[in-house]
Amino acid sequence: MTENVVVLGAGYAGTGAINKLQSELGGNARLTWIADVDYHLVLHEAHRVIRDPDVRSDITFPTTQIADPSTRFIQDEVTGLDVDERTVELADGDDVEYDHVLIGLGSQTAYYGIPGLEEHSLTLKSLDDALEIHEAVSEARRDATRGEPAQVVIGGAGLSGIQTAGEIAEFRDEHRAPIEIHLVEALEEIFPGNDPEIQQALRDLLEEAGVQVHTDDPITEATADHIEFDEGEPLDHDVLVWTGGITGRDAMENADLEKEHNRVNTGANFQTSDERVFAIGDSALIDQGDQPAPPTAQAAWQAAEVAGENIARAIENRPLRTWEHEDKGTVVSVGEKAVAHDVKPAFGISLPVDTFGGLPAQNLKKMIAARWIADVTSWNEARKSWSSL
Ligand SMILES: Cc1cc2nc3c(=O)[nH]c(=O)nc-3n(C[C@H](O)[C@H](O)[C@H](O)COP(=O)(O)OP(=O)(O)OC[C@H]3O[C@@H](n4cnc5c(N)ncnc54)[C@H](O)[C@@H]3O)c2cc1C
């Protein structure tokens, strides 16, 4: 009997899993890949598009370049998953039946019920989002003067917020534009939950780039022209970008699976409360003991390898592998600069210090993205993208 395997999403989770499944599945399985866009976006470099929209062609790869001729690709929005009927529901097309499905739909922005935030802020979760931020910043600077600079406020100082602030600072400098950039974080430190050494190194780079960092004061309300804080004075904005949190996709709302805020709970083998449904990446809360796996590209990429293999094993009724997230370290950009922390030895090179910047960190950041692009396409594509990474 032919098994129908369906993969949802074309991010790190979906693309990585498709790659693995294409090599793992034998002739008795049919593979269908569904995403709302017909390209894979290297989302962890999407902030580069805010500075320069031309970068988009270097960080997007058509699904036709990744899918084998035998893989059926459907471009449509997933609106639901019926685990009893074993169907994926689509916005435009007919339901798609599955024997096994992998959820890799990523996450959407969380607003935590802060009044006005959703209505008045831009988000960064897709290529279109990055282009919209570029347009908004460009328009704000056209109306600005040295006496009245454009106010760009970024809420949330995690990976996306820090890297967005860095790119807008580069944009300001390249265009000699009158722009003031504020990075706002509710908690005491930027890059919360990480080592104080990298937190400080990132803060130093941001301040050097002229980004005003505000910490330890949560936003309580957003309006069309300002944000209010729990304690501090209100801050005006011409552009407000909110990157302060993630939640699961609305498409999973009615799926009869164990989940929290629409992020689907899985065991360390990626199986959900329904044994035919697997989930990885930001869509999933993957059991790793005390904490679930982090919502990072790095984790999604690692998980995809094993998830693809586990679906092939499930079809053959073989035992599933368990996965352990390995933190290979962190590299974060602030414009052209970067900071690396706790990077595990690779390519036979071990590193004498925990936290470092300069050219080694910049090149490491490029190397990580290039390696991913090479994995899903080819080293030739990675080489072409190098200057934009
Ligand atoms: C600006 C930015 C910088 C980041 N920097 C880093 C970093 O430096 N290091 C790091 O490790 N992580 C970083 N991250 C986090 C990282 O990008 C995410 O953790 C990673 O993208 C998760 O992979 P994913 O495949 O689960 O989701 P995604 O990459 O978001 O992919 C989701 C896929 O599903 C598709 N999709 C979504 N909804 C639907 C639907 N309803 N129907 C059909 N298709 C749908 C999307 O189009 C996409 O193809 C960053 C994130 C951002 C936004």
Textual characterization of the structure:
The protein is α/β, with parallel strands linked by helices and about 400 residues long. It has 3 domains: about 5-110 and about 245-315, FAD/NAD(P)-binding domain (3-Layer(bba) Sandwich); about 120-240, FAD/NAD(P)-binding domain (3-Layer(bba) Sandwich), CATH 3.50.50; about 330-389, no CATH class. It is about 30% helix and about 25% strand. The protein has 11 helices and 25 strands. Strands 5-2-1-9-21 form a 5-stranded parallel β-sheet, with helices on one face. A 4-stranded parallel β-sheet has the order 13-12-11-17. A 3-stranded antiparallel β-sheet has the order 6-7-8, with no helix packed on it. Strand 12, helix 8 (about 195-210) and strand 13 (about 210-215) form a beta-alpha-beta unit. Helix 10 (about 360-375) crosses helix 11. The longest helix has 19 residues, at about 295-315. The radius of gyration is 21 Å and the shape is globular. Flavin-adenine dinucleotide binds near residues 43, 46, 106 and 297. Flavin-adenine dinucleotide (FAD) binds near residues 10, 36, 37, 105 and 295.
